[in-house]
Amino acid sequence: MIDATANPDQLAERIRELGQELGFQQVGISAAHIGEHEERLNDWLDAGYQGEMQWMESHGSKRTRPAELVPGTCRVISVRMDYLPADTAMAKRLKQSEHAYISRYALGRDYHKLMRRRLQQLAERIQSLIGPFGYRAFVDSAPVMERALATRAGLGWIGKNTMLINPRAGSYFFLGELFTDLPLPVDAPQEKEHCGSCTACLETCPTGAFVDAHVLDARRCISYLTIELKGAIPPELRPLMGNRVFGCDDCQMVCPWNKFAKPTGETDFSPRHQLDQATLTSLFLWDEDTFLRNTEGSPIRRIGHERWLRNLAVGLGNATTSIPVIEALRARAEHSSEMVREHVQWALQRHGEAP
């Protein structure tokens, strides 16, 4: 047993070792506050950049003050888990208009359950060392400013594309947290950014979603449009989306720091159902049962079949005109969903076809 009070440094080091044994590539510890990130969030919300994501506004200061969300919290243990699949050739898909581009994080199984389970195991192993202690695990599942906390824990800095960037791993990773009442020593923060004069991420965004460095207007972001937006995609943005049907990685692909990103060893993050090779027409033919079956345990399932078809219709509207593309769109022209029909009609018109 370790005396958490008498040997906090020893305990912190052992926690890092346990985290790596459980498959986390990095573990950092921070105090339970996010500093100037609270003001930045409030300014961003005041500008309305969150769009329909009302959950970003809810819970008041609980989002920015961990001890209000979980009383008694004095430290946050932040963990990093890399997810980059090996050999997906996804960058090539953006130039193949007949193929569907799906964000790399969504090609495999949903990360939430896997990471939550590992965090629970981490907490249980800590308990085996010191006895019962107060904690609560989070994986993108509550009002937690995970990137801000991760910077305070030394896991990286928030880049101009608003992603957390690690100097040895780039940005293709998930984050999770353990809020705890253990008075552990904290790591040195890495809040100073190392992006320099590079603006590649800002310039490459297909829809011009970056208002400025570190400021993303989610209402124009393809990830928001394909995942968070519940209604129709604004017509003026559709041609800019290309074949991106679930998420977008453009601002990460061009980031020089991602040359250090390493393929993950987690088999759960490997592509499923050949989603890294699928054509738009093949995915558009999935009926709802097929969609539910093929997206079981996948982050894609959260958008539902209707929005899945909406996104694919936009992709098909941007694809090179061909008989398979036209036939696929016509097959959905009388779909029961008004939203799907409207996007199919737009796509057909893009190909010079009467709806």
Please specify the SSE layout and strand pairing.
Elements: H1 8-21, E1 26-31, H2 37-46, H3 66-69, E2 75-82, H4 90-93, E3 101-102, H5 111-130, E4 135-138, H6 146-152, E5 157-158, E6 164-165, E7 173-180, H7 200-204, E8 210-212, E9 215-216, H8 222-228, E10 244-246, H9 250-253, H10 280-284, H11 288-294, H12 304-318, H13 323-331, H14 338-350
Parallel strand pairs: 3-10
Antiparallel strand pairs: 1-2, 2-7, 4-7, 5-6, 8-9
Helix pairs in contact: 1-5, 12-14
Give me some keywords for this one.
14 helices; alpha+beta; two-stranded parallel ribbon; 10 strands; 355 residues; 2 domains
Explain what this protein looks like in three dimensions.
The protein is an alpha+beta fold and 355 residues long. The chain folds into 2 domains: 1-268, no CATH class; 278-355, no CATH class. 35% of the residues lie in helices and 11% in strands. The protein has 14 helices and 10 strands. The strands form 4 sheets. It has a 4-stranded antiparallel sheet, sandwiched between helices. Strands 3-10 form a two-stranded parallel ribbon. A hairpin with a 5-residue loop joins strand 5 and strand 6 (164-165). Helix 1 (8-21) packs antiparallel against helix 5 and helix 12 packs parallel to helix 14. It is elongated and about 75 Å long. The mean pLDDT is 94.
